[in-house]
Amino acid sequence: MLFGTEILKYRDEILKDLADLIAVPSVRGEALPGKPFGEEPARALAMVLYKAQKMGLAVKNVDNYAGHAEYGSGNEAAAVAAHVDVVPAGEGWDSDPFTLTRKGNLYFGRGTADDKGAAVVALYCLKALKDAGVKGNRRLRVIFGSGEETGMEDLHYYFQKEEMPVMGFTPDSDYGICNREKGILRLNLLSKEKQPSVIKELEAGVVYNAVPDHARTILSCSGQSADALKEAAKTAQGEFTFKSVPDGLQIVSKGKAAHAMQPQSGFNAAAALIRLLSSVFSPEELGAFCSFLDQSIGFCYDGSGIGVQQSDEQSGPLTLNLGILRLENGQAKAGIDIRYPVTSDGGPIFSEISRRAEEAGLSAELLEDGKPLYLPGDSKLISILQDSYACVTGKPAELYATGGGTYARAMKGNAVAFGPFFPDEPDRRLHNTNESIDIDRFMIHAQICLEAMYRMLTA
Questions:
Q1: pLDDT tens column, 250-276
Q2: Whole-structure pTM over 0.70, yes or no?
Q3: Both 277 and 381 in a single domain?
Q4: How many other C-beta atoms lie within 10 A of the C-beta of residue 440?
Q5: Domain end among 317, 344, 370
Q6: Which residue from 21, 252, 322 is spatially nearest to 146, judged by alpha carbons?
Q7: Which residues contact 240 (CB under 8 A, 6 or more apart)?
Q8: Known catalytic residue: 148?
Q9: Which letter does DSSP use for residue 259 in this model?
Q10: Among 337, 352, 370, residue at a domain's last position
Q11: Each residue's pLDDT expressed in tens, for the chain with a length of 459 residues
Q12: Beta partners for 281?
């Protein structure tokens, strides 16, 4: 008998609670006492735990890093991990990003697809198991993180305080089953010396793991240089607008946002702006920092410009994203996100980038080296998930690799990414404007999720 269909009776309640959660703009903010990711992520976490408590589930908030709702009894636990924080909304939405907006079968809002929709569904799967009085062989938790989008230190902290599940999954990727996640390397490139004054300000991006969709600079330059820039913009890659401001000439570069695991699917506004500036100004006028970014990063999303291009059969090529750029008062910083193959090592990659940066008069600062995840295809967990998927869809769940970093890697080889989106779905615009879910398809995911949770509980 298929238990997963039990979730269908909760469809209206799921949408109501999703609307409440979407209304919380849970973008990471300034750390506050007891709120490591700021006010709004803490508010979103408190909201989802309150809803779980009202369902009669056991709940725990672990210092506003993460929390869980739990059902069942036993000496060990299985888990589903989702997150309630989101990336910034960005500009260009057709509706309010923090209002759940329906258009036909589509529901729009920041977090619908990544990952509040899946978080609410997982919570209602726990409720369905409780309401049905299912008896299991272990406890089953839904873990809600509040800092996934900015480094995943939320779950690392959580597991310092709480037990590690014996099996689990995170519905924060695609179907079939992602048993291979590339390593994630994040670093800053920093200027050592004050940069030339032709660039008074330069800024782009707010997070490492997204392609910046706009960049802005203010220049102190001659009218001749301004005219040359405007002329060069006519044939340059990208879209630019120019405006005279009290401090000089302002240029805004427009790009296309995308997730850092697929930077080639976006268009990097920062790289485009630097390329435009370098077409007019000499390296001496532009400074070592921007010259290095243009020559060694630029539009080389595979790391070839900086000497770290590589690939493997298991997970594919390395990707590189210039996510953050700041230059002010002559001091400069560039934030880089790299996804490297599962059979590789982040240490030599960072060493090579650091060496090249030093040669150019810059320095490199390592922020994170998240090691790859690789779970063998014959594991018990993968068998449970494959059976759950096949029971609901009648199709096999293929194993695949991703450049995305999910909570699975925080569970020390006991978890994988599983859902919520299907291979034939159109782009749901994660980390982009007009993010959405198709509710009919999402309820198929809900059935798979419940079936898998039922089997993890009773296996």
A1: 999 999 999 899 999 999 999 999 999
A2: yes
A3: no
A4: 10
A5: 370
A6: 21
A7: 233, 251, 252, 253, 254, 272, 273, 276
A8: yes
A9: B
A10: 370
A11: 699 999 999 999 999 999 999 999 999 999 999 999 999 999 999 999 999 999 999 999 999 999 999 999 999 999 999 999 999 999 999 999 999 999 999 999 999 999 999 999 999 999 999 999 999 999 999 999 999 998 889 999 999 999 999 999 999 999 999 999 999 999 999 999 888 879 999 999 999 989 999 999 999 999 999 999 999 999 999 999 999 999 899 999 999 999 899 999 999 999 999 999 999 999 999 999 999 999 999 999 999 999 999 999 989 999 999 999 999 888 999 999 999 999 999 999 999 999 999 999 999 999 999 889 988 889 999 999 999 999 999 999 999 998 877 899 899 889 999 999 999 999 999 989 999 999 999 999 999 999 999 999 999
A12: none
Q: Which one from 70, 85, 172, 435 is the annotated catalytic residue?
A: 85
Q: What is the CATH number of the domain that holds 173?
A: 3.40.630.10
Q: Is 312 a catalytic residue?
A: no
Among residues 6, 17, 114, 148, which one is catalytic? Answer: 148
- Residue of 456, 430, 449, 408 lying closest to 179 (CA atoms): 408
Pairing of the two strands 66-71 and 58-62:
antiparallel
> What would the 3-class secondary structure string for 385-417 be?
HHHHHHHHHCCCCCEEEECCCCHHHHHCCCEEE
Count the neighbouring beta carbons within 10 Å of the beta carbon of residue 234: 7
Report how far Cα 341 is from the mean position of its chain's Cα atoms. Answer: 18
One-letter amino acid at 424 equals D
Per the structure, the count of domains in the chain is 2
Instruction: Looking at the structure, tell me whether residues 163 and 203 fall in a common domain.
Output: no
The residues pairing with 438 across neighbouring beta strands, listed in sequence order, are: 106
Nearest to 445 by CA among 141, 181, 259, 176: 176
**Residue 275: domain span:** 184-370
SS3 441: helix
Beta-carbon contacts of 431 under 8 Å, excluding residues fewer than 6 positions away, are 87, 114, 209, 210, 257, 258, 259
The answer to whether residues 85 and 172 touch, using CB atoms and an 8 Å cutoff, is no
Residues 284, 219 contacting (CB under 8 angstroms): no
